[in-house]
TrEMBL record:
Gene3D superfamilies: HPT domain. The lineage of its organism: Bacteria, Bacillati, Cyanobacteriota, Cyanophyceae, Prochlorotrichales. It comes from Prochlorothrix hollandica PCC 9006 = CALU 1027. Residues 4-112 form the HPt domain. One of its GO terms (biological process) is phosphorelay signal transduction system. Pfam families: Hpt (PF01627). The keyword Transferase applies. Keywords: Kinase, Phosphoprotein, Transferase. This is Histidine kinase. The keyword Transmembrane helix does not apply.
């Protein structure tokens, strides 16, 4: 096994180990959900467990795991905000079915062939009706419902999408991306109380801001998803709105923009360059300090643009505690985009 392969296994091992611990927490909570729902601290543990799995999967590029964990997190949030809710058998069964999907994806990741993208996306697609039904059922038993939509919500969204399409047809530029991001903010402001709509528009904004996301690929995907989501919102099915794995992938911006020549600059000067300096007729007292003084150490860390390569570099540079702190900081930054 090469050094790179060993590093990949170490990164994967860290994630799987922590994910399994979080899944154990979730499973214990779901098996006694009727009691747990009345304990705010235990509900917080369930929410944090799903949140942690989501964040770790996002960092490593496992979008299917991220998406399912996010759906569970949203459902736990409903229970957190409704402490007096009476959970029934239907809700318990739906929660467990959603949890089984997350567990299935993690088992595939641990398998001999790893997590195959096509298979994982199909697993997420098959589970989507379960989460839609769960959200609808939670709204019923909490007495909640769809948030009030502004008048002509769908037509307003379509008007913004038409303006957005005009910019997408122009050559890509930083200014153009900023203007399109502004359109995303305008759409988010149309329904600020609907978290699923807010999450979708912010994911779209992140994808637009990714300089590696070409307009030719981004435009049709983003326009289609926002249009379909606006129709679901107008029909009172806002809880069914979510960003696809493809859009989430485009929204993943390189963590560090490292210059390609940074590694070359960090290499020591070739020995052949030293003798001329030492051999110059400068006074003997002045030469040794110049030739012997070490180059200042750099505190900078060169990180590849590839997410997995970046993760490998971070694992080599930091210990486990520092990696955990870094993951929490990155999650906060991503949520703030």
């Amino acid at each position: 096994m090469t050094t790179v392969d060993a590093q990949k296994q170490q990164i994967l091992g860290f994630f799987i180990e922590e994910a399994r611990e979080h899944l154990d927490t979730i499973e214990r909570g779901l098996l006694s959900l009727k009691d747990v729902v009345n304990d705010q601290e235990q509900m917080n543990e369930l929410f944090r467990a799903a949140h942690s799995v989501k964040g770790g999967a996002a960092m490593l590029g496992y979008h299917s795991i991220q998406q399912v964990a996010h759906r569970l997190e949203d459902c736990f949030k409903v229970l957190k905000e409704e402490p007096k809710i009476q959970v029934d058998q239907v809700a318990e069964d739906l929660f467990l079915r959603g949890f089984d999907t997350l567990q299935q994806l993690l088992e595939q990741l641990q398998g001999p062939y790893g997590l195959q993208e096509d298979e994982a996306e199909q697993t997420v697609k098959d589970a989507e009706p379960v989460f839609v039904q769960l959200h609808d059922h939670l709204n019923q038993i909490t007495g909640g419902g769809a948030a009030a939509m502004p008048p002509n919500f769908a037509p307003q969204v379509m008007g913004i999408l038409k303006e957005m399409l005009v910019l997408f047809k122009q050559p890509p530029s930083d200014r153009g991306r900023q203007q399109i991001q502004g359109f995303c903010d305008r759409m988010a402001a149309l329904a600020p109380d609907v978290e699923t709509w807010e999450a979708l528009t912010q994911t779209a904004k992140g994808a637009v801001g990714n300089p590696n996301a070409p307009f030719k690929e981004l435009a049709p995907l983003l326009i289609k998803e926002l249009k379909q989501a606006s129709e679901l919102m107008a029909a009172g099915k806002g809880q069914s709105v979510h960003a696809s794995a493809a859009l989430q992938k485009l929204a993943t911006v390189p963590r560090v923009e490292a210059p390609a020549k940074a590694p070359v600059a960090a290499t020591p000067a070739p020995p052949a360059a030293v003798p001329p300096v030492a051999a110059t007729p400068a006074p003997p007292v002045a030469v040794p300090p110049v030739a012997a003084s070490p180059a200042p150490e750099s505190n900078e860390l060169v990180i590849p643009r590839d997410p997995r390569g970046a993760a490998q570099a971070l694992v080599k540079a930091f210990d486990r505690k520092q990696l955990t702190e870094l993951a929490q900081l990155l999650i906060k930054v991503i949520k703030g985009q």
